[in-house]
Specification:
4 helices, single chain, 81% helix, mainly alpha, 110 residues
């Protein structure tokens, strides 16, 4: 159950961070305005909060593992929201990052 909770928290963090950055991007680069920027700032704040809910108490480990989630999640966001088509190297890189997440977060430790 702890691993499932951790994975769900990583997904929630990714949605908040990537979504927040995307909202700010839209607000500035696509000229959608201050409401989009404000929503992005709020989402980025939510990301910071969600990260604290991880069951592991090691900040460095959580953020290092989250980096792999961020890489794969960013590509997935691009596919779903921006109709981006990753090539095989994007997919291989994301898979390597996700393997790193598993090793960093879920390897058996004493």
């Amino acid at each position: 159950m702890t691993i499932i909770r951790s994975i769900l928290l990583f997904v929630a963090a990714a949605i908040a961070e990537i979504g927040g950055a995307w909202l700010i991007w839209q607000g500035i680069r696509e000229h959608k305005g201050l409401l989009w920027i404000g929503a992005g700032i709020a989402a980025l704040g939510a990301y910071g909060f969600v990260a604290t809910l991880q069951p592991d108490a090691n900040f460095g480990r959580i953020l290092a593992a989250y980096g792999g989630i961020f890489v794969a999640g960013s590509l997935a966001w691009g596919v779903v929201v921006d109709k981006f088509r990753p090539d095989r190297y994007d997919l291989i890189g994301a898979a390597i990052c996700l393997i790193g997440v598993v090793v960093i977060m879920y390897a058996p430790r004493r």
